[in-house]
From TrEMBL:
Residues 238-535 form the Aminoacyl-transfer RNA synthetases class-II family profile domain. This is aspartate--tRNA ligase. Belongs to the class-II aminoacyl-tRNA synthetase family. Type 2 subfamily. Residues 1-26 are annotated as: Disordered. It comes from Gossypium gossypioides (Mexican cotton). It is an enzyme of class 6 (ligase). GO terms for biological process: aspartyl-tRNA aminoacylation. The lineage of its organism: Eukaryota, Viridiplantae, Streptophyta, Embryophyta, Tracheophyta.
Amino acid sequence: MSSESEEQQLSKKAAKKEAAKLEKMRRRQEAAALASAASSLSVEEEDSYSSNYGDVTLPELKSCSKPDAGNWSIVISSMDWTRVGALTQELKEKEVLIRGRVHTTRPVSKNMAFVVVRERGFTVQCLVATHEAGVSRQMVKFVAALNRESIIDAIGMVSVPGNPIKGTTQQVEIHVRKLYCVNKAMPTLPINVEDAARSDAEIEAALQAGDKLPRVNQDTRLNFRVLDIRTPANQGIFRIQCQVGTIFRQFLLSEGFVEIHTPKLIAGSSEGGSAVFKLDYKGQPACLAQSPQLHKQMAICGDFGRVFEVGPVFRAEDSYTHRHLCEFTGLDVEMEIKKHYSEVMDIVDRLFVTMFDSLNEKCRKELEAVGKQYPFEPLKYKPKTLRLTFEEGVQMLKDAGVEVDPLGDLNTEAERKLGQLVLEKYDTEFYILYRYPLAVRPFYTMPCYDNALYSNSFDVFIRGEEIISGAQRVHVPEFLAERAQACGIDVNTISTYVDSFRYGVPPHGGFGVGLERVVMLFCALGNIRKTSLYPRDPQRIAP
């Protein structure tokens, strides 16, 4: 065979091969086109309800008032919102619009998924199923793929299941017909709210059963505080804290007090000592106020009669304890004394009994949520608060075999022991200890009339821990300057304070209490960082 005929034969084979290749490609393209067409038809069929779900677009989230801005805007513009906590059986067969976070999702099949929605500590189970009008398979898939903690809006009918719903606060179920994702959370979170909400008892019970559940330690919680405070217990803690501040204001206003706001940038130190945050103030040495003490007294000099303040307090102490912070919220009171400094203690008595009564009455759900994760016994207190002198307290400790300095301060162990003894003898965990030794009180404390070793001062205790310190103040300027020098304070740094008493001032006294400490001890939480929204201690200045 000649080389020319061989080339022709090879050329024919190549052409056939190429033709076969092209035919195969054509068939593949046709098959793909058919599949695509079928898929398009399927998608079109499934997405006939696409307006009932999806991600809310950014233009819609810019507070656009146009009714046709998007599916979500159209839907929510015609409905009122219902809080998750308000979803009760009385709303059976009513259509509601709710907003909350995706707490958990549980896909059951291609046709059904459950999503638990959480809002401010309350949770409700939502059912998304294709047998409901307006729900497609793709909607079920969309819901099942939602990331935990994402913000969603859901519309559906309230249903009351025959059996109790486990794992949610609300005993109703929402049969969803529309659902929109307002804001997506990350697929993987640093901590899960579900893990952060578990009690130690739950974790231990799981261990006994052979299961190991995640335990979120305190540092991790504080590092990711914005997630941690979403737990039901933390929602309860800070709503209780809000109520404490509210009662404090309302009670004092009803007693004729005036709310004031004092500066936190001061020259010198308000309490004396070295535990101050020092700073440069336009070339002058200054510090952050350890308390509003001096200025609230000056307000009494200014004829306000009775004043109070709620504001930040700064302490630069290197205290690595369960009850100390470098910054906390102070609740401070100052008032004119007519006859005796017991008038100040009378205010303390009635204020805190009112506060405890109100918390027990108005914060039942919040206290229940706190107790579920951090079990505690309700605080024992009396309608008329027990008062003991410091000397009586010392004697009770001595009788119990605890030796303390009769002219010194009580340490933490002695305070706890005395609290235990008071509970056993008087059946109360809230009491006032007054007439403290002068040597352990601030320079502005008035000495006792009958014994200069003691003072017209008091501390208040909850569950064996001090929460309030108060006293009658020295209002005679010469004696005040003498006391300041005796305590090592440069009188020149507080000259405006001392001079304010040279213009005439009535006898007066007051007290201060840490808001976080009140909540910590009322709920027996064991660590003040649990009651500080974003704690500041010697090792933490963020977040």
